[in-house]
Amino acid sequence: MSNEHTVKSYEEELQNLKDSLIKMGSLTESQMSDSMDAIIKVDKDSIDKIIKSDDEINKFRSKIDTQIMNLLVKRAPMAIDLRETISSLKISQDLERIGDLSKSNAKKIKPLPLDLPEELLSNLKRLGDLVIKQLNDVLDSYINKNFDKAKIVWEKDEQVDDLTNIAMQSVIDFLSKDKKNLDFSTHLIFATKNLERAGDHVTNIAETVCYLIKGEYLKGSRPKGKQAQE
Amino acid sequence: MNKVKIKSKNLNVHYGQKQALFDVNLDLNEKEVTALIGPSGCGKSTFIRCINRMNDVIDICKVTGKIEIDGVEINDENLDVVSLRERVGMVFQKPNPFPKSIYENISYGPKIHGKGETKSELDEIVENSLKKSALWEEVKDRLDEPGTSLSGGQQQRLCIARAISVNPEVILMDEPCSALDPIATAKIEELIDDLKKTYTIVIVTHSMAQAVRVSQKTGFFHLGKLIEVGKTEKIFKNPDNKMTQDYITGRFG
């Protein structure tokens, strides 16, 4: 028995939707990576480029919305096709939000001084690297329909929570040393929080990928870091 | 979940040398709609024709195994087929009203089953049946006109009214909307939703969307075998069997 749809154009439409989502995912990943690099290097020249790349991501979101509407109207998808279509809608929403958070972080670079303490930046970098890795892994699990990999991403959000706490603490320590640090420390706190939120969206995507593959939602609540539990 | 009304056990049907059903075990719940889906020739119509022994009229047809209604075997030679068909009504693909008036289409069944002794009793049955089939308001002033003068959708509702006029327990529907336009189809689907409060309904359909809309349970047949049966929601969102998934997603080569 064939795995292809009897109607070839239906097959193509579903494939085009998957391709759009993969491209959107790849753009979101690059944007987050660029945004993170720029923060760590306090590279103010990259800000505009990162903000602009968010427009590209938003365009994909609109394109995916249209593709989904067309599929629902024309094909009334069932079973795996229905899950594929609905999951694309949810994943594209999460990717768009991740894009917004990366853009927001890029905007926070402007007021930062060029001589931020090494420890502060390294803690933020560790968090950023983990979130980027998580995003990369979850997109990989989507492309290869790998349930186990998506579940590992879901479980690893605990580590994102823990690294958020560490990064947050180092900003607070920095702030407490000198009240003059208040202005840009606030920006760093928001940037840290944005990374944690991006991590939450990655977790949502992991849940969606698990549902897409098995048709059931993951049971129980995901493991949470210390701060997130409180 | 409602109690089991109809139970088939190792049901096999042969048309001469050709086997049409293979060991079908299927439970149909009371006051629920069960949809049967599958490609043409898969045995779904053969299955529902076993429930009111319509296959008896085909000489070369041989049915083995069991079908029980309320725990009573209906393939028993001593069972009165006429009274079985009074309990199990049927509606076909193409509306097939008798070439008689709207009134007589409904009153004919109760008359032969001795249910309407007087004119006023029959009037009541006709009115109630037409009300239950959501046709009364459209035809109450023209009951003497021929049934065939109605539109296709109305004719099909007339056939449903005719089926329920003898107060059955089960209604079998063999692609009841395949000859109807979307509005008439919507009316029949709404009617099915209403009728399931009183009757056990089994519907054969080629429309996946219709199966999702009207049924609580769905069975998928292929080449005479029941491949998968389960809650409709489960079958159409996440079926267990790959063949079911391939069929409902249009991947059947």
In short:
The complex is a heterodimer of chains A (230) and B (253). Chain A is 80% helix and 0% strand.
Keywords:
A: 230 residues, mainly alpha, Methane Monooxygenase Hydroxylase, Chain G, domain 1, elongated, B: 253 residues, alpha/beta, Rossmann fold, six-stranded mixed sheet, four-stranded antiparallel sheet, 10 strands, globular
What do these coordinates show?
- The complex is a heterodimer of chains A (230) and B (253).
- With 230 residues, chain A is mainly alpha-helical.
- Chain A has one domain (8-229): Methane Monooxygenase Hydroxylase, Chain G, domain 1 (Up-down Bundle), CATH 1.20.58.
- Chain A contains seven helices and no strands.
- In chain A, helix 4 (118-143) packs antiparallel against helix 5 (147-177).
- Chain A is elongated, with a radius of gyration of 19 Å.
- Chain A starts with 7 loop residues before the first helix and ends with a helix.
- The relative contact order of chain A is 0.13.
- Chain B has 253 residues and is of the alpha/beta class.
- Chain B has one domain (4-101, 168-248): P-loop containing nucleotide triphosphate hydrolases (Rossmann fold, 3-Layer(aba) Sandwich), CATH 3.40.50.
- Helix content of chain B is 36%, strand content 26%.
- Chain B has ten helices and ten strands.
- In chain B, the strands form two sheets. Chain B has a six-stranded mixed sheet with strand order 6-7-8-3-9-10, with helices on both faces. A four-stranded antiparallel sheet of chain B has the order 2-1-4-5, with helices on one face.
- Chain B starts with a strand and ends in a 5-residue tail after the last helix.
- Classes of the chains: A mainly alpha (230), B alpha/beta (253).
- Chains A and B meet through helix 3 of A and helix 8 and helix 10 of B.
